Amino acid sequence: MTTPALLPLSGRRIPPLNLGTASFPHHRATLRLSEKFILLLILSAFITLCFGAFFFLPDSSKHKRFDLGLEDVLIPHVDTSKGGKNLGGYLIHGQGHDEHRHREEEERLRNKIRADHEKALEEAKEKLKKSRDEIRAEIQTEKNKVAQEMKKKDSKPLPPVPVPNLIGINSEDPTDKDIREKRDKIKEMMKHAWENYRQYGWGHNELKPIARKGHSTNIFGNSQMGATIVDALDTLYIMGLHDEFREGQDWIDKNLDFSVNSEVSVFEVNIRFIGGLLAAYYLSGQEVFKLKAVQLAGKLLPAFNTPTGIPWAMVNLKSGVGRNWGWASAGSSILAEFGTLHMEFVHLSYLTGDPVYYNKVMHIRKLLQKMDRPNGLYPNYLNPRTGRWGQHHTSVGGLGDSFYEYLLKAWLMSDKMDTEARKMYDDAIEAIEKHLIRKSNGGLTYIGEWKNGHLERKMGHLTCFAGGMFALGADGSRDDKAGHYLQLGAEIAHTCHESYDRTTLKLGPEAFKFDGGLEAVAVRQNEKYYILRPEVIETYWYMWRFTHDPKYRQWGWEAAQAIDKYCRVSGGFSGVKDVYSSSPAYDDVQQSFFLAETLKYLYLLFSNDDLLPLDNWVFNTEAHPLPVLHLANTTLSGNPAYR
Ligand code: DMJ
């Protein structure tokens, strides 16, 4: 039996690349996507054809199968003596009686294949008639469908858990008119920061208020994840800026996507994004924030894949590949980074019922407990490959700070059940007091930095948060030294206020010395800047809550006025490069923590104490309030969703 030349036919009728390029001869370079699409269409037509040929062409065995349909009978047999033909073990009977019908049927099938093929080609031609934009739109629709599917998969509801006691989300206005006006002023500053970000930096991580465009730094990699939106949400909420809050929620719902090929800081993403999303979830009850927090946490988990389980400082959100900062002592991870995950990760386990997050941070804690500490101090650097300390530098400021803060807050957040964390905090603070805290000749208490056996008499703006931490940890301290720690907090607050008061702008420098006759002033030019940081105001707020000494409100108001006077520009708020200069240059960055922390602490300073009471809420290091987990202590045994 001869085979009709279907393959040459298809070869002649489908000159794929010629058709595609002929349609858009002058767009060759720019039409790569469309060409791929067309090529795919043509390929699929070609495959259809081959598929047809494979099944329908009269190669011997296939042909016999069609004969089944022709009512011939196939009988397994090898005997050819009865005039039948041996075809692959089957004997065809009645070959002579219906050859005509057989040929007709074959012809019918060939026609059908041709018709199908023609149809596929027609469809391909129709596509080619479409404009580039139409084809793009179709591709986009397909992509959206896939994205929607994936979203549905990611948005699987989480198991229900008992909602913690959410007390003090709202509060009455302060009765004192002066305080109310000050609070309103802070709210106005928040609006100014937010509206300019929305106008000029929307969706970018931060804002350049002078250039009036988006800004980002290496902590967010090359991502555009709207850090300011996420960081600002809970401040907007507690200030009653609900329209702005909803704008932020809408952006997050539609645009916040973590499948980006971007290498981000695990610590920064945890404290700003996961902390911000969790706080927004608890305050507003909107599920989207919880879901996004859990999705993001999943992207951070590969950072823990190190020989010791101490996470890398950075992780690529797409590939999961992690690494450490090039400048950190011999490839080390940083204490303040891997030690500032506990609060958020405990909440993630609580909300998901998945112990993976809890186990990761508890593993870090166990490992730290086993290690020797020089003079009882925790060095800032730890190598995640070897599990050994890097350089023996200890700081309560940058590189160390929030590790100590999270030990205390782990205890508070567990409704004071996590006594192991409290003990670690007490031990660490005792060593810090012994080796790092000193009084200057002028009577200012300061916290220095320990470097290879020597005390550097320098204190960072970051270190000023410790005043609030000492006050917060006073209650429940070892040997009932509550009074002592409250006093220590007050002394640090005073020193930090001096660092502001001794400048021209009444704003604090990045670092200040207690050396060579100098007290609480910056010496080096590159330590004279103020980048809208919150730590000093944070300490004023804690001290206000614990003492109600009006000087803390006074100091907070001084700082707010200085910020409004020297950092406010028409496009938002900017840091300044020299707080000792009467006409300082701007750094042109509106940091996301200005909205998350600085303005929030100021607002709380002029609010009643029943707004986010400290018995029920614990603020993460980015000032995102998380509720105390009364039911799920740190063993999570009280959590019914726990698996
Ligand atoms: C914030 O991102 C956090 O407070 C962090 O713990 C350290 N510093 C910045 C603000 O100064």
From TrEMBL:
<comment type="similarity">
    <text>Belongs to the glycosyl hydrolase 47 family.</text>
</comment>
<dbReference type="InterPro" id="IPR001382">
    <property type="entry name" value="Glyco_hydro_47"/>
</dbReference>
<feature type="active site">
    <location>
        <position position="401"/>
    </location>
</feature>
<dbReference type="GO" id="GO:0005509">
    <property type="term" value="F:calcium ion binding"/>
</dbReference>
<keyword id="KW-0812">Transmembrane</keyword>
<dbReference type="GO" id="GO:0070062">
    <property type="term" value="C:extracellular exosome"/>
</dbReference>
<keyword id="KW-0106">Calcium</keyword>
<dbReference type="Pfam" id="PF01532">
    <property type="entry name" value="Glyco_hydro_47"/>
</dbReference>
<keyword id="KW-0378">Hydrolase</keyword>
<feature type="compositionally biased region" description="Basic and acidic residues">
    <location>
        <begin position="143"/>
        <end position="156"/>
    </location>
</feature>
<comment type="pathway">
    <text>Protein modification; protein glycosylation.</text>
</comment>
<dbReference type="GO" id="GO:0004571">
    <property type="term" value="F:mannosyl-oligosaccharide 1,2-alpha-mannosidase activity"/>
</dbReference>
<feature type="active site" description="Proton donor">
    <location>
        <position position="268"/>
    </location>
</feature>
<keyword id="KW-1133">Transmembrane helix</keyword>
<dbReference type="GO" id="GO:0000139">
    <property type="term" value="C:Golgi membrane"/>
</dbReference>
<feature type="region of interest" description="Disordered">
    <location>
        <begin position="143"/>
        <end position="176"/>
    </location>
</feature>
<feature type="active site" description="Proton donor">
    <location>
        <position position="510"/>
    </location>
</feature>
<keyword id="KW-0326">Glycosidase</keyword>
<keyword id="KW-0479">Metal-binding</keyword>
<keyword id="KW-0735">Signal-anchor</keyword>
<feature type="binding site">
    <location>
        <position position="621"/>
    </location>
    <ligand>
        <name>Ca(2+)</name>
    </ligand>
</feature>
<keyword id="KW-1015">Disulfide bond</keyword>
<dbReference type="InterPro" id="IPR012341">
    <property type="entry name" value="6hp_glycosidase-like_sf"/>
</dbReference>
<comment type="function">
    <text>Involved in the maturation of Asn-linked oligosaccharides. Progressively trim alpha-1,2-linked mannose residues from Man(9)GlcNAc(2) to produce Man(5)GlcNAc(2).</text>
</comment>
<dbReference type="InterPro" id="IPR050749">
    <property type="entry name" value="Glycosyl_Hydrolase_47"/>
</dbReference>
<feature type="active site">
    <location>
        <position position="535"/>
    </location>
</feature>
<dbReference type="GO" id="GO:0005783">
    <property type="term" value="C:endoplasmic reticulum"/>
</dbReference>
<protein>
    <recommendedName>
        <fullName>alpha-1,2-Mannosidase</fullName>
        <ecNumber>3.2.1.-</ecNumber>
    </recommendedName>
</protein>
<dbReference type="InterPro" id="IPR036026">
    <property type="entry name" value="Seven-hairpin_glycosidases"/>
</dbReference>
<feature type="transmembrane region" description="Helical">
    <location>
        <begin position="37"/>
        <end position="57"/>
    </location>
</feature>
<keyword id="KW-0472">Membrane</keyword>
<dbReference type="GO" id="GO:0005975">
    <property type="term" value="P:carbohydrate metabolic process"/>
</dbReference>
<feature type="disulfide bond">
    <location>
        <begin position="464"/>
        <end position="496"/>
    </location>
</feature>
